Amino acid sequence: MAQNTARKNSGALVPRRTGGQDGLGWWVEQYFQHAVTTSPPSQQVQRRDLGLFLRYLQAEEGTDQRLAWTPRLARAFQLHLRQTLTPEGRRAWSDKTIQRILAHLKTFATWVHTHQPFPLGHPMATIKLPALGTGLEVDRALTAAERRRLLDAADLLLVIDALDVAATEARRRAVRGTSASGGCG
With bands split at pLDDT 50, 70 and 90, how would you rate the model's confidence at 179? Predict the structure, then answer.
């Protein structure tokens, strides 16, 4: 499906929540109502990603208030995504998934910041989204034992190669010595 890039209600203003409330849950609803134009399956993924952050914010700060979302909290969330392990001891989210989550969060933060600036600045401004490589995640592709065995085998090849070079050099010296000592010449 092609992504629709036109903006919904492009001239519509986002109303402030009444009663002094400024919760990010409310901002998420406004965002989907006024700005998100992707397909329903994409919106479902976006909602899940933003919900993951809102649950983290609630657990860490005890609130979903917009003012609690700071650049320091955004970096802590990024670290949380990278360090969370499954019960089996593997990372809970792949690098590609973390990149997608942070990209959705960054887009949302930009939208909120344009309507109601964050006091400490855009919370995601310092979060860099590095280009992903080939998709091979070495840390997850091999177990620690497999990685050690592979590196040991590579080291052994270097030793064998060094021994082979030394043996070849010794043969050359022996051949030169033989021909220099009285061979035909």
Answer: low
